[in-house]
UniProtKB/TrEMBL annotation:
Superkingdom of this protein's organism: Eukaryota
Record-linked InterPro entries: GGT_bact, Ntn_hydrolases_N
Name of the protein: Gamma-glutamyltransferase
Protein source organism: Porites lobata
Record SUPFAM superfamilies: N-terminal nucleophile aminohydrolases (Ntn hydrolases) (SSF56235)
Length: 242
């Protein structure tokens, strides 16, 4: 496969593909671009391609620089109505929280007030319901495949894991140690090693079937509030933000 050098690491081409009727572009993960093109080939809309690409890219990036607990901003042109829609899935403050308590700069420690509500899942679910042809479960299929079956670790991700494999970052929590340590070697995942994400597999299956309810009002909401170590009523507010 033809290769290119990007940010000092080799990545397979291409990051943009056109089938003559539409074009899909991604940031760093060609397999995610392929997921978007597959959605178009099967009759999906531009939104189907957009969401399938974004959802797969997060799994392939191991949630590092993009995350299901992040944000999304979608600008969508609907040809049938010639209208342009904007979907803002940005950060939000807890429903009953006090915005004045949010630190103006990055702080360390367990400061619950610094934890904002991520809007990515809300934005994706709303975009899929309004503009996509396929159901959310179908759009998550490529992401689920790579989480469940794994993918070979890229040079860039392997170097990042090695760089942050310490007690301050990845090894700070039991989850970090479990996810980024290869059980076969007892060492951080290295280049070309198969990387699977069983916990993420469970997460994707739940979100793809239950949507926003699981993320903002269910098990995941309980987990994030517990790990953020924030007390009521802020914890309850995050769980009922949507």
């Amino acid at each position: 496969m033809e290769r290119m050098t990007l940010n000092r690491f080799e990545r397979p081409k291409p990051l943009a593909v056109s089938n003559g009727k539409g074009l899909v572009a991604g940031t760093t993960e060609p397999f995610a671009v392929h997921s978007g093109m597959d959605a178009l080939r099967k009759g999906g809309t531009a939104m189907d391609a957009c969401l399938a690409t974004a959802l797969a890219e997060i799994t392939l990036a191991t949630g590092s620089y993009v995350s299901y607990a992040g944000v999304t901003q979608i600008l969508y042109y609907e040809k049938s109505s010639t209208r342009v829609f904007s979907i803002n899935g940005g950060w939000n403050t807890p429903l009953h929280g006090d915005p004045s308590q949010i630190p103006k700069v990055h702080t360390t420690g367990n400061n619950g007030a610094s934890v904002l509500v991520p809007g990515f899942i809300a934005g994706v679910v709303d975009a899929a319901q309004k503009f996509a042809k396929f159901p959310l479960k179908t759009l998550f299929e490529p992401a689920l495949f790579f989480a469940e079956n794994g993918f070979k670790m890229s040079a860039g991700l392997a170097n990042s894991i090695k760089l942050y494999y310490n007690n301050i970052t990845l090894l700070r929590t039991a989850q970090g140690r479990s996810i980024f340590t290869n059980p076969e070697t007892g060492k951080p995942y290295a280049y070309q090693e198969l990387f699977k994400q069983p916990e993420l597999t469970v997460f994707i299956k739940n979100v793809s079937t239950s949507g926003k309810d699981y993320f903002y009002n269910g098990t995941w909401a309980d987990e994030i509030t517990k790990h953020a170590q924030i007390s009521d009523p802020v914890g309850e507010a995050i769980q009922h933000i949507i």
